[in-house]
Input
Amino acid sequence: MPSYVVDRIAELLNRQAKPLNGARVLLLGVTYKKDIADMRESPAIGVVRKLRTRGAVVSYHDPLAPPWSVDGIHVAREDDLQAGLKGADLVALLQAHSVFDLTEIGRLAGVLFDTRGVVRSGERL
Output
């Protein structure tokens, strides 16, 4: 599934005439399951690996996740969600934690890829 998600992210960016290489991608919800702090076996790990391989600049926002690294490389944590949403070339909602204001995410994200199908606006998986 991480390959499919990254391919869709690249496709959405291409529609905006923006390459994945150098794009700022914000991942929302990187834990293994919704409303759980467990990072083990999270699909977000594979997404980060593939995004980095293709040259994306990856950050994440997840109030349940601790500071995080993938393959020994730190993943930038975006503590200010509003600023992160506005500054990203693409926002990918991976886990729809209950603490997320989905309406605000849909309103502020320029390009949104909703892998959970819970936000009214944006591309859905």
Notes: The chain has one domain: 2-124. The chain is about 30% helix and 20% strand. The first strand starts at residue 24 and ends at 28.
